[in-house]
């Protein structure tokens, strides 16, 4: 049996997240229906992680097993033809039978997009949170850097998805302004320097880690937005981390500003 790895991009606006659900439209069900239509086999498509309702991806990774003999380029083109336009297979690659999109992942890069211009650009309304106040990106970046390294991130974890450990290691985190092309860039700012657009109304939070807790990036984003507004003082992130108490951090930012950018293996 062959093992096919897919790299996916999707607009999550019209989906109730990745994982299949009864009576709700999800990305997993949409992809599995396309695979079954192509191969004639019952499909089980697993992803690197379950993005929530409204969350987008430009580099999600999934895999499925099949006995079909179509070459990978045919699989890519056929799946795209069978799915709605808000989901695309960017790559289809035959991989080792041991590859598992979830368990083989070594790290992920997420990006949260904010817009603090006076009038929200309607083209970006599905992909950026409109902050109705000027944001201090310098202060946000300084606080975000306190998240670097291994910490117990339970202060940034929404209850409901218990883990054996809340310790995760953040390897890259940054807050900066850049142009709209950054939204779709699958490179991180650490390897691809953001352009010097200091007056752009778009702010980006990028976080790379070896794993993420439930709503971790959105909770970090909500907390840093408080910093950007001047609602929280310098040094607050260190205190929040030490507290290990979700009530000490800021609100969970809305899902539509969040992108799964890349999965590393």
Description:
The protein has 265 residues and is of the alpha+beta class. It has two domains: 2-95, 2-Layer Sandwich (Alpha-Beta Plaits); 107-264, Pseudouridine synthase I, catalytic domain, C-terminal subdomain (Alpha-Beta Plaits, 2-Layer Sandwich), CATH 3.30.70.660. The protein has helices at 27-39, 72-82, 137-144, 216-229, 236-243; strands spanning 2-10, 46-47, 56-66, 87-95, 107-115, 129-130, 149-152, 167-177, 202-209, 258-264. A hairpin with an 8-residue loop joins strand 2 and strand 3 (56-66). Helix 1 (27-39) packs across helix 2 and helix 3 packs across helix 4 (216-229). The longest helix is centred in the last third of the chain and has 14 residues, at 216-229. The chain is globular, with a radius of gyration of 19 Å. The mean pLDDT is 94.
- The CATH class name of the largest domain reads Alpha Beta
Q: How do the helices and strands follow one another from N- to C-terminus?
A: EHEEHEEEHEEEHHE
Q: Indicate the CATH topology of the largest domain.
A: Alpha-Beta Plaits
Largest sheet: 10 strands, mixed
Note the beta-strand portion. Answer: 25-35%
User: What is the architecture of the largest domain at the second tier of CATH?
Assistant: 2-Layer Sandwich
- What is the helix tally? 5
- What is the total domain count? 2
Helical content, roughly? 10-25%
**Secondary structural class:** alpha+beta
Could you tell me the mean pLDDT?
Answer: 94
Q: How many whole angstroms does the radius of gyration measure?
A: 19 Å
Distance between the termini: 22 Å
What's the name of the CATH homologous superfamily of the largest domain? Pseudouridine synthase I, catalytic domain, C-terminal subdomain
Coarse shape = globular
Low-confidence stretches: none
Number of strands: 10
């Amino acid at each position: 049996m062959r093992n096919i790895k897919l790299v996916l991009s999707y607009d999550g606006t019209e989906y109730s997240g990745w994982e299949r659900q009864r009576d709700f439209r999800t990305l997993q069900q949409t992809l599995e229906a396309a695979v079954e239509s192509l191969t004639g086999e019952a499909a089980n498509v697993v992803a690197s992680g379950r993005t929530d309702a409204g969350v987008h991806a430009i580099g999600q990774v999934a895999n499925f097993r099949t006995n079909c003999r179509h070459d990978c380029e045919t699989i890519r083109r056929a799946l795209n033809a069978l799915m709605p336009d808000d989901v695309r297979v960017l790559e289809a690659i035959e991989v080792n039978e041991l590859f598992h999109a979830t368990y083989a992942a070594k790290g992920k890069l997420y990006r949260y997009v904010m817009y603090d211009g006076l009038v929200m650009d309607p083209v970006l309304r599905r992909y950026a949170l409109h902050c109705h106040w000027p944001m201090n990106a310098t202060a946000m970046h300084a606080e975000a850097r306190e998240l670097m390294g291994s910490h117990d991130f339970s202060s940034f974890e929404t209850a409901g998805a218990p883990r054996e450990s809340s310790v995760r290691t953040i390897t890259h985190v940054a807050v900066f302004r850049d142009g709209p092309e950054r939204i779709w860039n699958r490179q991180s700012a650490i390897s691809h320097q953001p352009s010097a657009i200091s007056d752009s109304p778009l702010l980006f939070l990028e976080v790379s880690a070896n794993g993420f807790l439930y709503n971790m990036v959105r909770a970090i984003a909500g907390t840093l937005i408080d910093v950007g507004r001047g609602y929280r003082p310098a040094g607050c992130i260190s205190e929040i981390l030490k507290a290990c108490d979700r009530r000490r951090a800021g609100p969970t930012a809305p899902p539509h500003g969040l992108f799964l950018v890349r999965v590393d293996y």
